Amino acid sequence: MLRRTNLAAYISLTCPHLNLASTIKMTSNGIVAIQGETRVHLDPKRAIDNGITFVSHAHVDHLHNQNGGLLLTSRQTSEIAKIRGYQIQSYLEEYENYSMIDSGHILGAKGLLFGDDVFYTGDICIRGRAFMKGARVPRCKTLITECTFGMPEYVFPRIDETVEKVNAIISEMYAKGKPVILLGYELGKAQILSYLFSHWQPYYHDSVKRINDVYRSFGVEIKNSMGHTEAEKAGLLDKKPWVMIAPNLSGKNNFVQHMKSKYDAITIGFSGWAQSSRFAFARGHDYSIALSDHCDYDELVELVKQCSPEKIYTVHGFVEEFAADLSKMGYDAQPLQESSLDDYL
Ligand SMILES: [Zn+2]
Predict the structure, then answer these.
(1) pTM of the entire structure?
(2) Which residues surround ligand 1, an ion (CB under 5 A)?
(3) Which pLDDT tens digit goes with each residue over 211-248?
(4) How many angstroms does the Cα of residue 188 sit away from the middle of ligand 1?
(5) How confident is the model at residue 292 (pLDDT cuts 50, 70, 90)?
(6) Nearest in space to 203 (alpha carbons), one of 177, 231, 175
(7) From the CA of 63, how far away is ligand 1's center (Å)?
(8) Torsion-angle region of 136 (φ positive above 0: left; ψ -120 to 50: alpha; else: beta)
(9) N or C: which end of the chain has fewer CB within 10 A?
(10) Where are the domains positioned within the chain?
């Protein structure tokens, strides 16, 4: 049986400006907006050889080798994608009535405003932090928003409080002669950490150093420093204490274990998930700190207010919960979910 919410996702919306109808739907390959004859694929999971594909940013869950069709993405995203081994032959940064808007998530991350009507946020953060400016938020009629942290328990502390807290931990460890490893995603979080804690003159994990170099090539003032392989070979890691910025991926756990057993290093993990004790994040590190490249709950609500949309679709994260909260606030909101109706469109 079809759910009412799924049926409503197929209601066509008229855009008076261009007189084009937009239909938004979730497919097995991600979000598709249909505008007249044109299909706009918003961060599809797999490459598509027709219509318009929008790639919001260079986190790997959004990247694929280009396979025809028109690609909209930023220069920064295309450069980072190439460095990460993806093939992009050609792309556009603007096209007709499609405009990309800074989403404040990572370097080059964008949202897409099209038809003067629909705004797709991609991953978004409206809070400025270190060198990253918060997202620019347009008014729109239809908002498709991520809601990774769309539950009220996820309200993050201010960035200056976070920096103060981490500096105090590092100082305490330094007094004991212990090295400290700051762990965050190698693309995005690690660059914020590199910038915020540059006064400790940290070493970088080689993968972080590689991305820091790309950021620097785009004018971001992240200090250059030695990669961990070179530092270890030169015997510099034996001279404790020190600080290092490293990726927080499960596959790299051997690296962290090596650093802990050989150098008695302390780990501090950085993630929005550190805000909740319901998730295992906090248990994997000596310290865990809430720091995210996404909006927290209050910021998501603020984002919606600023967009002032007539219709909201929630995607990624707490889609049911956040849509329910928005409905209570008087908005017309629903999760965008896959439907068996796809076959009939
Ligand atoms: Zn992302």
Answers:
(1) 0.90
(2) 59, 123
(3) 999 999 999 999 999 999 999 999 999 999 999 999 98
(4) 8
(5) very high
(6) 231
(7) 11
(8) beta
(9) N
(10) 4-153+294-344, 159-289
Interacting residues of 233 by C-beta distance below 8 A, sequence separation 6+: none
Distance from residue 138's CA to the centre of ligand 1 (Å): 20
The span from the CA of 106 to the CA of 93, in Å, is 17
Q: Quickly name the fold that domain 159-289 has.
A: Rossmann fold (3.40.50)
Which is nearest to 29 in space by CA: 53, 11, 10? 53
pLDDT of 84 reads 85
CA–centroid distance, 105 to ligand 1, in Å, is 7
- CA distance linking residue 110 with residue 59, whole number of Å: 12
Q: Which amino acid is at 148?
A: T
Lowest mean pLDDT among 8-17, 86-95, 227-236, 253-262: 8-17
Q: What is the CA radius of gyration of the chain?
A: 21
Q: How far is the CA of 117 from the centre of ligand 1 (A)?
A: 24
The reply to whether CATH 3.60.15.10 applies to domain 4-153+294-344 is yes
